[in-house]
Amino acid sequence: MDGTGDSGDNSESVTESTETTESTDQADGVVTAAQPEGTAEPTTQEDAAAAEPAASPAAAQLPYGAPGAAVSAQPAGPTVVTRATALVRGIAVERFLAAAVGAVVVYAAAWLLALVFTLLAFVAAVDADLDWGLAFAAPAQIVGLAVAGTLTVGATVMGISAAVSVLWLPLLVTAFLLVAAALVARRDERIAPSATRGIRWLLSALTGVVLALLVIVIAAVTPLAYAVGDATDTGFGLFSGSGSASSASFTAFVGAVVIGTLASYLARARVARRVAGIAPPAVPRAASTVVAAVRSTLPVLGLHFGVLAGLLTVALLISAVVNSGFDTLLTAFFWLPTLVVDSLGLVNLAPVTLNGSLGTLAGLTGSATSFWMPSMIPAWATVLVLIVNLALIVVTGIVLSLRRAQLRLSPAVSWLTTILSFALAGVAVSLLGGIAAWTSVDTSGVGESLDGLLGGVGSLVEGAAAASGTLGLAAWTFIVFAALGAIVEVISVWVAPALVQLVPAAGLARAARLTALVGVPFAVPGTIVSGDTVPATDEPAGASAEGVSTPEAVGPLAPMSPEKKRRVRIVLVAVGGAAVLVLGVSVAITIVNQVAFSPRHQVEIYLDAMVAGDASTALEIGNADVSKAERTLLTDAMLTATDGGITGYTITDVSAGSNSALVTADVEQAGETEEMTYTLLKSGTTALVFDQWVLDPVHLASLNVFFDSGISELDVNGVTVELTGSDQESGTLHLPAFPGEYVVGSAGDDAWVAAEPQTVVLGVSTRVSEDAAQLSLEPTDKFVESVDDQVSDFLAECAAEKSLTADDCPIYAYDYGTITDVVWTIDEPAVTELDTSYAGEWYVTTEDRGSATVTYTNTDYRGAAQQETKTVAFSINGTVALVDGKPVFTNGY
Question: Please, which contacts does 609-614 make with residues 24 or more away whose CB atoms are closer than 8 Å?
Fold first, then answer.
């Protein structure tokens, strides 16, 4: 190759002489291959006709791929169809086969790359229960996504079908497809150059169509298949079903055709220009202004975003490793490119938005939700990003200024080109980094029982479940990028000329060589950009024959005076110092915020107070929503006396937004660990820069106590709690309490009755206690002894009666005649027990009946007296009540 042609312009340029030669050959019925490298380019139509040799029969018979091989062309027909037919017939079959096989090679390579990425992702999730068989079905779906296919994930359970469709580009695989298609097409074009543009388009289109067919067919026949449900009987049928995921879609077909065709054609056209030795032509000034402006801007645009993307890639990888570990790198091939593209907008202060009704289904919001860079990273990181981005913008403006120094662009064209180029870049970034999704539900396949349950509202269910949404940079990101382009143009026009003079010529030369390595050469004052050279002429710089304008060499800049240089340096030092100062202050503020004013710190203060038994601090920091009357158990004395409380904690995660934060901690209580999440809200700032975070009111469980009337005080963990009149009347007490173990009993030294102490445990996550203390006043031993004594005295009184049937006595006997000399003897006392009554009295009942013997004299109506002896069983029944604080037995007979 002669190396004079390619300057990075992908548009195909053909000189008038080349077109004339080609048309002359076609008129003769033969289309010759492009001339080999090193052949001088004809300059006129006559020279082209004389220099172009006629294709000999021997040359026409050369094998496919041999240099100089000729392809027969059919005479042009009168219609488009006949012309297309003639074009197809003029192409050797081997060319079609090569184009089709090239598509197969491209797809196979992309499939293998997707397989590697999938296996790495499975390795990263080795602890999860994954079906490794899916790893070999996933690559086809990933390739489908890479060509803008729609991945539809669906499942059918109990006759209800649901599907979620996702449109997302795995950009690394997409880029690989573009590069692979271009490389394969370039190799084919080098082996057998195409004679005309039409042939190149036809072969490229064939590559695109074959690639599209491979994408669609393989994705359709190898879907991701899986089972849903555990086959449990729900009463309406077995909860089981199946699902599948496939990216075979119309968008995948169209995307594959476009990617395969364009990548192949651009590669073939590039080879054709190199083989023909065609250089970008010098065109009249009136027509070249916009072209020159675009050619000077686009490489700079690519350099700017390329460097920025590289910096973002490094930063995101470091952040991922620090926050999630090295396993995250195994999945970075999928998420990193999209995140980098979105970050290109974020660092330029364009927000990422969530739009649509999918946010509602996800528990977020149906309206747009925006995420801005300053709210996503610390303040010092925001300042650092802005400083680095501003420095990169300045460098971009300088490079753009140097690239345009040798051009005579009008200000309007210069401004318009820069702004539009950056705006279009914003559109591209928004599209490439976006994710779209939508859902659907179909209830037409439900069974009769479930259909009856739905009651004819299946259509309503389908409508409610249908949702859609997008996640990506805001739709107006292109406006932000247009403003960025305007800033670059301002720097290029007014700032760059002054800054360039502060850089030594040797430094500029080294920088020019460095940028030239990535295809962005610029003009050092006194030179011409090598990539923008034009054919040499004898005319002086800036003039040419026939109205053709050539770029002028850039003359040396007029040197600045020492005083002006000094002022510029002072300004630069001041700006740099201010930037360093702002960054340092931001770092200091961030450190202080994280140490003393962070959400984490507030939770630590609260939990430290709980561990130390400092109830007052815990209540203040925890913002417990309790009244003063409800703080009976929320005292330092109570918290200190409570066993089984919080003994330690470990903060495990902090998720902070602009106005709210979630802090997760593993809290230790009674030898067990429980995860707790605390919500905090930003209430303002201190000293204008330090954040104030307050805990959302911490929920405290309630200690529930039910007690009998007669109890006026409770003993809770050794602390006396007085009961109000309303409490005593209701017999219940509900008081907020800190986590811990509470022993509850009746207070006071009552010798007769007391409530048996009961233990209630309140956990750190307890919201509604299932346990409650049931306090019932039970007789003490002294009470029982007193009752037994009273019962014995009562029986003794009954026994002292000289009657077989003394009034209100449980011992009695019946006989006829005149009864005299009655003597009762208690042989075995009855065994009694006390049962509590609802009126605050105790029932005395007999558990084992006693026995008594009575002797008496029975005189009948005739006057005959006879000694009688009887043994009877008896029971004791009665009640016991506290009278003047003492138990008093009352006979129940």
Answer: 610/639, 610/645, 610/646, 610/738, 610/739, 611/645, 611/646, 611/647, 611/648, 611/649, 613/639, 613/640, 613/645, 614/639
Per-residue pLDDT at 704: 87
- Write the pLDDT tens digit of every residue in 529-542: 444 433 333 444 44
Contact 329, 320 (CB under 8 A): yes
Structural contact between residues 197 and 218, judged by C-beta atoms closer than 8 angstroms: no
Nearest to residue 405, comparing CAs of 286, 555, 303? 555
E-assigned strand segments in 35-116: 71-72
- pLDDT value for 241: 64
Q: Which of 109-118, 504-513, 636-645 has the highest mean pLDDT?
A: 109-118
**What's the CA dihedral at 598, 604, 606, 608 to 10 degrees?**
-150
The tens digit of pLDDT for each residue in 659-696 reads 788 999 999 988 888 889 998 888 877 776 677 888 88
Reported pTM = 0.63
Please, are residues 654 and 661 in contact by the beta-carbon 8 Å criterion?
A: yes
Three-class SS state of 15: coil
The rounded distance, in Å, linking the Cα atoms of 382 and 384 is: 5
Percent residues over pLDDT 70 in the chain: 74
Positive or negative torsion for Cα 295, 296, 302, 305:
negative
Strands 702-707 and 773-775: parallel
Burial class, 680, CB count within 10 angstroms (exposed 0-12 / middle 13-18 / buried 19+)? buried
Residue 252 CB neighbour total at 10 angstroms: 26
DSSP 418-485: HHHHHHHHHHHHHHHT-EEEEEEEE-TT--HHHHHHHTT-HHHHHHHH--EEEEEE-TTHHHHHHHHH
3-state helix, strand, coil in the chain (%, to 5): 45, 25, 30
* HSE-up of residue 888 (Cα within 13 Å, Cβ side): 7
Is residue 891 helix, strand or coil? strand
- Is the model's pLDDT at 176 over the cut of 80? yes
- 124: nearest Cα among 39, 16, 379, 116: 116
Q: Are 26 and 53 in contact (CB under 8 A)?
A: no
**CA angle 658–662–668, rounded 5-degree value:** 155
More confident position, 9 or 392: 392
**Type of residue at 68:** G
State how far Cα 875 lies from the chain centre.
Answer: 78
Q: Is the predicted pLDDT of residue 156 greater than 80, yes or no?
A: no
Asked if pLDDT for residue 123 goes beyond 90, the answer is no
- Domain residue spans in the chain? 1-150+169-225+246-281, 285-535+554-559, 621-777, 781-891
d(CA 624, CA 36): 86
Average pLDDT, the chain: 77
Place of tokens 């380019």: 41
Mean per-residue pLDDT for 551-578? 62
pLDDT band, residue 157 (cuts 50/70/90): low
71-75, 435-439, 748-752, 770-774: least confident range = 71-75
Angle at 872 between CA 869 and CA 878, to 5 degrees: 140
* Token couple for 426: 């914003």
Nearest alpha carbon to residue 791 among 829, 824, 828: 829
**Residue 893: count of CB within 10 angstroms of its CB:** 13
Note the residue count of the chain: 893
The pLDDT, as a whole number, for residue 186 is 95
Question: For residues 71 and 89, is the Cβ–Cβ distance under 8 A?
Answer: no
* String of DSSP letters for 336-387: HHHHHHHHHHHTTTPPEEEEETHHHHTTS-SS-EEE-HHHHS-HHHHHHHHH
